[in-house]
Design brief:
Structural class: mainly beta
Number of strands: 29
Oligomer: single chain
Helix content: 10-25%
Largest sheet: 5 strands, antiparallel
Radius of gyration: 43 Å
Number of helices: 4
Length: about 450
């Protein structure tokens, strides 16, 4: 039996055949080409500097947890949506001064506090009960009301609804929706002349009679504290008003020796007392800051030495007391007062008594209101109507109208156009001392 010949037995012959095939013709050209190429520098080889086990080690890359990242992104989106929904649901608040959007009108009727929607005439009872509640005033952000509750006697027994609005009084704060009723004055004050919220709403600035004399008080709106403004011993103060925009200063009528000698500014802690206007022989009152706090409107009363008659004039002065000037007096009016700034600070609403026969000192005149330019460029537009001597008027927060109500027991309210002087009746009645709520534009 013959075995097959194995490959290794034929290998020598095959190699010899290949060798005998000869060297390729292109070998020399290939060697010459390679010889011209520069060799790679030895320092470029990583193994010259790093151990080979480090260079050749395989680095494991962790897997990206895409599912977990997707879940976190979804949670973040849900949280952002929830925050946006919460912020959107919160009521936007207006700035404390300047033009704002109209809200409801607050007033007192039959001893209760109400609000009325000036667009629809819908009335809402805010504070009710057997007590006599009067004169609500909105906070500058429109979220709360402060009002007076009349009381009599040392035991503060409250007057029943419908009785005369006299005697001592307490101040209360309530939410504009009637919630969270809070008493802010621990004791009844003999006579409360005026009150208003601070720009931040945390305090109530009060002018009242206390211990037989005029005083200026600060009551916390949460009812936790009350304090008196510290003034020189010989001076009493009344008719205070916070200066815009932050209430860091206030103006008041200074009374020395029984007469109103001038207007003064002071910080709420009693520091920085300074005179704004002082003039012998005149009585000053009704100070009102412009919305930006740069100017002050006020009323001065004195004698017209030429005629012997009394003069009541509206003046405007810079906050530092410079440049006091009468606000464009009407030739038929010697009695002008009660200034109130428009929200944009360009006009003043004033009361005015126009003479019927050229002589207002005889007591015969037509009561009116007027919208007068604050730059003294004219006499303004008169708002003349019957019964205005027993009325109160207020700017609407948006400056587009003026509301006038006729007396505490009046039966009519009207709206004026401050540009034309034309009026129209409205299907609701808000007695005097009304307050118009400010809302964010």
């Amino acid at each position: 039996m013959t075995s097959p010949q194995r490959f290794e037995q034929d290998l020598p012959a095959l190699l010899e055949g290949l060798y005998l095939a000869g060297t390729p013709d292109y070998r020399d050209d290939l060697v010459r080409q390679v010889a011209r190429v520069r060799q790679r520098p030895a320092w470029t080889f990583p193994e010259r500097w790093l151990p080979m086990d480090f260079v050749t080690e395989r680095v494991s890359t962790p897997r990206v947890p895409w599912r977990a990242l997707g879940a976190l992104a979804l949670i973040a989106l849900l949280i952002a949506a929830a925050v946006a929904a919460y912020v959107g649901s919160q009521a936007r608040l207006p700035a404390p001064f300047g033009v704002a959007r109209n809200g409801v009108v607050a007033y007192a009727s039959d001893g209760d506090i109400h609000t009325v929607d000036p667009e629809t005439g819908a009335v809402t009872a805010v504070v009710t009960g057997p007590e006599t509640d009067l004169d609500p005033v909105f906070s500058l952000d429109g979220t709360h009301l402060v009002f007076q509750r009349k009381a009599t006697g040392a035991g503060f027994s409250f007057q029943p609804r419908g009785s005369e609005a006299s005697g001592s009084g307490l101040l209360y704060v309530v939410g504009s929706d009637g919630t969270e009723l809070t008493r802010v004055t621990p004791e009844a004050l003999q006579s409360i002349e005026s009150y208003a919220f601070s720009p931040d709403g945390r305090e109530i600035l009060i002018s009242a009679t206390r211990d037989g004399g005029s005083t200026i008080l600060f009551a916390r709106s949460d009812g936790t504290d009350i304090r008196a403004l510290t003034l020189p011993e010989s001076m009493a103060g009344s008719e205070p008003e916070y200066r815009p925009p932050d209430g860091a200063e206030l103006v008041f009528v200074g009374n020395t020796g029984g007469s109103a000698t001038g207007l003064y500014a002071v910080e709420p802690d009693g520091e920085g007392l300074r005179p704004i206007v002082e003039r012998s022989g005149f009585i000053f009152g009704m100070p009102r800051w412009s919305p930006d706090g740069s100017r002050l409107a006020f009323t001065s009363a004195g004698v017209d030495w030429a005629t012997g008659g009394q003069l009541l004039r509206v003046n405007v002065v810079a906050a530092d007391g410079e440049g006091a000037q009468v606000l464009g007096p009407h030739p038929r009016a010697d009695l002008e007062g009660d200034p109130s700034w428009s929200g944009d600070g360009t006009r003043l609403l004033i009361s005015r008594c126009l003479s019927t026969d050229g002589n207002v000192t005889d007591g015969f005149c037509d009561a009116s209101y007027a919208v007068v330019p604050a730059d003294r460029s004219g006499h303004g537009i008169d708002l003349v109507g019957p019964g205005l001597e027993a009325a109160t008027s207020r700017w609407a927060p948006d400056d587009r109208s003026i509301v006038t109500s006729f007396g505490r027991l009046g039966s009519e309210s009207i709206l004026w156009d401050p540009l034309s002087g034309r009026s129209r009746s409205v299907p609701w009645t808000a007695p005097e001392n009304l307050s118009w709520q400010r809302r964010a534009p």
